[in-house]
Queue: 3 jobs
Job 1
Amino acid sequence: STGGDTGGSDTGASDTGSWSSCVDTDDGAEDLFGTGCDYYEDWPFDCGLWDDAEFVAYSMCCVCGGGLSE
């Protein structure tokens, strides 16, 4: 048969980056549509589009490059 898995090892790409050591800092703040950082985890390309005076995705949400690294 053709196609499919070629065999090689699947162990090379464990994620040890900042995802596990970052905490969102929105603290209940919401964007223009009433959503917080949880929304941007599913829609990261929306980061910054719906910010308002109390919510800034790029500084509050880990997925947008903000949050607090621990």
Job 2
Amino acid sequence: PTPTPTPTSTGVLSNINTALHKAGANILAQQLGTTDEIGYLIIDMNKEASEQAIKQIKMLDENVKTRVLF
């Protein structure tokens, strides 16, 4: 069985940043917080790439929930 990714799993932030790169996102700032069970990531990025970025992030196995605030 494949282990469930945790916020402290190696490469989770890298996977998210790769997805954002594929979406053409310009990352202005990131804030990351984790516990042993879950983590959160707040990203300030250009609005133009937000729709594609959401699609890319939602495809990641590590994603639990994605929300967009304007």
Job 3
Amino acid sequence: YLNTNYTGDALFNNDKDAYDGAISQINNMEQYEDAKQWVDQHLKQDMKWDMSDNTVATFYGLLEKHFNLI
């Protein structure tokens, strides 16, 4: 499972329900490509993530690690 101890404050605008829901959604996916597409379509846009932010890069890194890509 994706590490649920990761702080979602900056990425999820301090919305714990949004964070928990996103982690649950990702943990139910079997493939990285599906998870990344979902993150790109829902989290990146809805939460207005700044793709140059290191916190965003860290989240994507955790996503890759979760699916054993790194």
